[in-house]
Every structure is written in C-alpha cells, then in structure tokens.
Amino acid sequence: MRMYFARALLTLILPLIATAALAQTTGYTTTTVHMRAGPGTNYPAIATLPQDATIEVYGCQSGYDWCDISWNSARGWIASSYILTVNNGQRVVLTPQVGVAIGISIVVFNQAYWHAHYQNYPWYPYWNRYYHPYAPYGPYHPYHPYHPYHPYHPYGPYHPYHPYHPYGPYGPLYAPHHHGGWHRH
After folding, report:
1. C-alpha 29, offset from chain centre
2. What residue spans define the domains of the chain?
3. Is the peptide bond before 154 cis (omega within 30 degrees of 0)?
4. pTM score
5. Are 104 and 62 in contact (CB under 8 A)?
6. What is the CATH number of domain 2-131?
7. Cα dihedral angle (5, 7, 8, 14), rounded to 10 degrees?
8. Sign of the alpha-carbon dihedral angle for 89, 94, 97, 103
9. Within a 13 Å sphere around the CA of 59, how many CA atoms are in the beta-carbon half?
10. Cβ 98 vs Cβ 88: under 8 Å
11. Mean pLDDT for each consecutive 10-residue tract of the chain (185 residues)?
12. Distance of alpha carbon 28 from alpha carbon 74, whole angstroms
C-alpha cells in the first residue's frame, strides 16, 4: 500500500519537478507579442511583451512552433517565430534547426503545467474551455478535415452532386442503350 501511494505521489509531482528542472536558454522577442497560457492563440493572454524583451526559454513543443517561456515573474507560451536566440554569436529566429543546434528541450503542455502556473488567474478553472489537443475541432468532430466517418467531404461518397460520382444529378451519365451500345444521355 505504501509503495502504491509513493508511486501515485511521484506520478503527480514528477511533471512539476521536470518542468522546473529544465535548462533555460535566453531569448529575445522579435516584436510586441502576447504571452499566452498555452500553446495556441485560443489560450488567454497573460502579458504583452515588448519588442526585444529578454525572456527565458524552457523548451518548445516537438515541432518547435510554440515555446514555454518566462518574462519577469510571468510564465507562458509564445510562438517560436517571435523568439530570437543566440546561435554562433548571432541572434537568429528560433526554428527547429536552431532549437536542435542550441539544445532547446522538447516539452509537453498538460494539465500539471496549468495547475503549477495559473492558479491565481481568473480563467484557471476553465481548463476544458481552452485545452484542445487536436486543433480546434477535436478527434471526431464532424467538420474535422480527417474525420474517419466523412472521408469524401463535403458531400459523402454517394451524394448525387459529388464530383466523382458515377451518376449525375439526373441519373447515369452513361447507360446501356436498348440497342446494345453505350451512349450519353
């Protein structure tokens, strides 16, 4: 029982420790930019950073599109295209190649991160309103471009106006003629 409790506690605390233990890289903002509560513009803005603000970069998502940063005492996320880092003595925009070259860690945004950094914000209780791991639609939203049940958007496989449907809106385009040949209607 004690081992189970220790493992459960470690499972809850480990993401917080891992987040705090990440190496930091100094960066700078390319322009005035909103720091967000998560990796996307659907998350609330925490602060507006001025151009050339000095920030600490803790890591980026696997595609290096959004990065976990701190500025003054605030912690949040900005798009990597707004971050300059130093590589070979020069300030360069943070791209996947630059991120790998200077050793920026890959980090994951999750609810443990949300709990660790945003408990004092008015929008903190609304995690489910903001968190969308599958883009804006979700894995099975009917309008999701890769929805498994709607592979022939927007018409469906047998809709009469589907561009590849063998029948036109008024019946078959080609049908057997009563004299044995095929002809167009």
Report:
1. 20
2. 2-131, 137-185
3. yes
4. 0.62
5. no
6. 2.30.30.40
7. 140
8. positive
9. 14
10. no
11. 49 45 82 95 94 96 94 95 93 94 93 94 91 56 47 48 49 50 51
12. 15
